[in-house]
Specification:
The N terminus is likely disordered. The longest helix is centred in the N-terminal third of the chain and has 16 residues. The protein contains five helices and ten strands, in the order αββββββααββαββα. The strands form three sheets. It has a six-stranded mixed sheet with strand order 1-4-5-7-8-10. Strands 2-3 form a two-stranded antiparallel ribbon. A two-stranded antiparallel ribbon has the order 6-9. It is α+β, with helices and mostly antiparallel strands and about 180 residues long.
Length: about 180
């Protein structure tokens, strides 16, 4: 996976292991979830290598992943966090919240997968909890939330050769509804 000196591709490690997990799910016929490409507009292309050397984002992207799990539509965003505090205001945007809300309104499941590097923990954050933190921020509360505020039962284990096994958390999320 490439690197980039801007704010782009900050979550590339997490996205790499999610991509491997999704491929394993596909092979096992458990789910079909794909990375949504970020729409860009190329400005400069190296004529020899035919690589894009300069581009800008053509439009706002919605979420990182979209697909179906055993007939249930899912969409989610992957986020990495270096500390135990997740900066909501700078990591999640209004258009993403609107998309996820609309997605859930169509009986889909929306969520965040967050990797807290300092604790080496992968967390599933249901949209309902994300909405609660978002509403708190919009009402003048903190623009972040702490790992300790998340439901510990939504921690994602890595076992069975699956890197970020999030299917169990989707089931838990559905059971809570």
């Amino acid at each position: 996976m490439g690197t980039w000196n801007s704010r782009g591709l900050r979550g590339s490690f997490l996205e790499e292991i999610i991509n491997m997990t999704n491929e394993k799910y596909r092979m096992q016929r458990l789910a079909l979830v794909q990375k949504v490409p970020t729409p860009i507009k190329p400005l400069k292309i190296d004529k020899e290598s035919r690589h894009i050397t300069l581009a800008y984002f053509d439009q706002k992207s919605t979420v990182d992943y979209i697909g179906v799990v055993q007939g249930i539509p899912v969409c989610f965003d992957a986020k990495e966090c270096a500390t135990e505090t997740f900066a909501l205001g700078s990591n999640v945007h209004e258009h993403q919240m609107a998309f996820m809300s609309d997605f859930e309104g169509q009986d889909g499941i929306a969520f965040l997968l967050i990797y807290f590097k300092s604790k080496e923990k992968y967390m599933y954050l249901p949209f309902s909890d994300l909405r609660r933190f978002w509403d708190r921020m919009q009402s003048g509360g903190p623009k972040n939330f702490k790992l300790a505020e998340l439901d510990p039962s939504f921690e994602i284990s890595t076992y069975s050769g699956t890197f970020v096994h999030y299917l169990e958390q989707i089931q838990m999320d559905m059971d809570r509804r």
